[in-house]
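Problem statement: downstream parser choked on a complex file, so we are re-checking the raw output for the manganese (II) ion run. The parser issue turned out to be on our end (a line-ending mismatch), but while we're here, posting the original submission so the record is complete.
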Amino acid sequence: MLYHAKHPLRVYVVVPDESDVANISRSLTQVLTKLNGIGRGAACSFEVLNGADYMDRIRSFPKNNSRRDLTSAAYLKFYIQKLIDEDAILYVDVDVVVLGDLGEVANKYLDSLEYIAAVGNSDTGQQHWRTLASIHDLNPVSYFNTGVMLMNLRELRESRADELLETVVKDHAELMIHKDQDAFNVIFNRKHWPLDQKYNVHDFSLGLNYSGVFERFILGGLNILSNGMLHEALKEQVGPDTVVCHYSAQPKPWEPNGYYCRAHSDIWFRYAKIVLDPAEYATFHSLRNIGSAFWFRAKQIGQLHIAAARRLIGGVIRRST
Ligand SMILES: [Mn+2]
C-alpha cells in the first residue's frame, strides 16, 4: 500500500490486543523508513489503534457456526466508525497485497459515497446466504466481499450501524458462516455501491466455488501435488489493472504450504522481500518447503479433515494395489 502510494496516505491499523500496539508500531516504523529510503511512501503516516475493548464485546456474541479459519477480529469492522475519527475511509484487510495507488479510488468516491462500496463475490449460492436473504427479503444474487470497503463513517455513526450489525449476529448466530461479511451483507445488501473488481481480486471473483472446507482441502492437496488447474485458473485473475490482490481463503501465502497451494503467492513474496528484515524473510521462505507442509496444513484444518484425507489416501492406496 505504501510502496505504490502516489498521494500521502494516513493509515490506521486496528489490532485486537493492546500488546500488539507497540509491536506493530515498531514493525511499521521500520517498513516505512525502509520504503522512504528507496523513495517510496513519501509523506505517508500511520497510527495503530487498540481494538481490545471491542474484542471483549465480540467475545460475548453467541457461539456460532462460522468458519473456524476466520478470525473473530474480523468483527472489529463493525466498530471502525467508533475507532477512527474520520468522515470516510477505505478499509483494507491485512491479507492483501496492494499493487497500485489506493489514493485514486479514495479520491474518486469517498466524498460522494452513501454508505459503503464493495466488490461482489460470485459465491452467492451458499445455503446460509440463501436463508438470510429469504428471511430479510434481500437480493439473493447480490453478495459482496468485506475485504475491501469504502466506508462513509459519518453515515455509519449516524445510522448506528454497529448496533444493526450486532443484531444480525445475535439473531442469526448459526448463519454467520463468514462472520462480519454475512452481517454486512444483510444490512447493506440494497444499500451498498458496487466497486470495480480490480480493487479486490479474491478467490471468488471468477465464479470459482470451492467454499466447502473439505473441497478446499482436497483441491488444495491436489494442487500441491500437481500444481494444477485451479492454481492456473486463479492466476489469470490478477492482471495489469489489479489494484488489490486479496488472499481471501486459506492458506495464506506466508503460511506453511500456502506458497504451493494458491495462486499469486509469488507476488506476496516479492513485496515481502522489499520490506521484511532479511532473517524474517528467510523464515517465511523456508516455510515454502513442500515436504512436511501438506501434513502440517492437514493438522491445522482439523481432525475432520485429517480423517477425510486418510480416507482419500486409503482409497488411493487400495485402488493402486
Ligand atoms: Mn481477507
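For whoever reads this later: The chain has 15 helices and eight strands.
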